[in-house]
Amino acid sequence: MRRSAGRLGAGTAAVFAIALALRATGCTPGLCLRNSDCPIGLVCLVDGSCGVAPTPGEAATDAGAADASTIDAVIEIP
Amino acid sequence: MLVCASGAALVTFAAPPAIGSPADESLWKAEIQAGYGIAVGGSGTAMSQRPTALTITATAAIAFADDPPLAAYGGLVAETLDRNAAGAVAGIELRPHGSRFHLAGGATVLATPYTLWGATVSAGVCLHATRAVGLCGDLQVTAFLGGSDLPEGRTVSQAQLAIGLVVDAP
After folding, report:
1. pTM of the predicted model, to two decimals?
2. Which CB contacts under 8 angstroms, 24+ apart, belong to B69-76?
3. Which of A1, B20, B111, B161 is such that its CA lies 20 to 30 A from the CA of A36?
4. Residue B82's domain is classified under what CATH number?
């Protein structure tokens, strides 16, 4: 029993060691990696934030935010 | 000694002593596993890490070769805790004679609600309480390479510690 507990502890230590190694390489914790990391209706953007899915020809925006520069870009003033 | 590479980390396992186990001679086995760990994705300064979902896997394996001792496995996988996703796994497992150690490689596919597919390798040991029932511990590394669950141009890798209950049959 003591040996099996030791192996279990070694496995936990291995995962913990991976976490420390990733932290040391500068990984930012907490950002989204997959679309399923985000609330329903939002997708994971390139910068690791959750936002509205960009449509073709449109830049992505964060959830709830309006990007004025994008809006200006599509309005043509005669 | 077996060395398993995972991203920037190297994890070293000490191979168990060569003691016969029921799994060595079994024709088939069934296993249910729960895995939890760390996922990492992105590149350079945009790299990010976060805890994985809790992954529940139910598989059945059948031996198809004796030298080397190989078994084919397949089954269902589900992700839960902060999401609900379901899919399937399949692959090949190496179970050396006279050892509790095993090594496996295969594919993982999630089909709903998003699609996601990738390659998985794992290494671990099984300790049997009886001839038929045992407890297994594995380190699983999965690289998700494609599917609608991934942002465009991104891959995600994850390392999980998986604990499993295995039932062997002769």
Report:
1. 0.71
2. B69/B24, B69/B94, B69/B95, B69/B96, B69/B97, B70/B94, B70/B95, B71/B28, B71/B29, B71/B95, B73/B104, B73/B106
3. B161
4. 2.40.160.20
